[in-house]
Design a protein that fits this description.
alpha/beta; 2 domains; nine-stranded parallel β-sheet; 4 helices; 27 strands; UDP N-Acetylglucosamine Acyltransferase, domain 1
Length: 267
């Protein structure tokens, strides 16, 4: 066990032999830290937190009460393999969050980026990959093998089917069930029959997208989601727009996302 002298550990906490606790960490009452857990500088466990498995946290993460992280995956095929959970820096993980470590068949690792807000009662299943700056509100539920790209935002009680990808900067409305890939930059909501209905204009503007970038993305999104074009026809028109110099890197990324989708996209 390696515990830095500046770390603060409550006397009721249990820190297993072999755990690594870096300077400035705070481990509150009744927390349990497993033998293969690494906490880097400035992490805080508020109280009653369970960290298990081969789990590594970056710097300045804060985990609230009753969260269970790095726990065994909810997969009947899992047989105790030494799979992992890797968490970046400066995440806020709220009460009762559960994050499963990976499975041997799914790559062996669940990953959380940096700067994410993961609210109460969120579940992140095994082998999922969450990017940077993502927001997962209360009750969002990700089945195994889900990818959430950078700066995507889910809303409360939104379940996501396994193997789906949520594109970067996408926004998903409350209670929306996701069974296909969600277009980057899009708004998708159950209020519109689980359809995408335009770009996440407000969110993108807050992230510094220019008016011209918003205009180009809006044109491309309308080609994909409006009218009688099929996906192939829409992509052809978007490619024509790109070749004529009428599309930004974001439009190009949107087109590539659609081409690579294996589950199909929400339109």
């Amino acid at each position: 066990m390696s515990i830095h002298s500046s770390a603060s550990i409550h006397p009721t906490a249990i820190v297993s032999e072999g755990a690594e606790i870096a300077p400035g960490c705070v481990i509150g009452p009744y927390c349990t830290v497993g033998p293969n857990v690494v906490l880097n500088e400035g992490c805080e466990l508020v109280s009653h937190v369970v960290l298990d498995g081969h789990t590594t946290f970056g710097k300045r993460n804060k985990v609230w009460s009753f969260a269970c992280l790095g726990i065994a995956p909810q997969d009947l095929k899992y047989a105790g393999e030494p799979t992992r959970l890797e968490v970046g820096d400066e995440n806020q993980i709220r009460e009762y969050v559960t994050i499963s470590r990976g499975t041997a068949g799914g790559g062996g690792v669940t990953k959380i980026g940096s700067g994410c807000l993961i609210m109460a009662y969120v579940h992140i299943g095994h082998d999922s990959v969450i990017g940077n700056g993502c927001i997962l509100p209360n009750g969002a539920t990700l089945a195994g093998h889900v990818t959430v790209e950078d700066y995507a935002t889910l809303s409360a009680n939104a379940p996501v089917h396994q193997f789906c990808t949520i594109g970067r900067y996408a926004y998903i409305g409350g209670g929306t069930t996701i069974t296909q890939d969600v277009l980057p930059y899009s708004l998708t909501s159950v209020e519109r029959n689980n359809h995408a209905y335009g770009i996440n204009k407000v969110g993108l503007a807050r992230k510094g997208f220019t008016p011209e970038e918003l205009r180009e993305l809006n044109v491309a999104m309308r080609l994909l989601t409006s009218g009688k074009r099929n996906t192939t026809q829409a992509l052809e028109e978007i490619n024509d727009m790109l070749e004529s110099g009428g599309g930004s890197e974001h439009v190009r990324y949107l087109a590539e996302f659609v081409k690579k989708s294996e589950r199909g996209v929400v339109k």
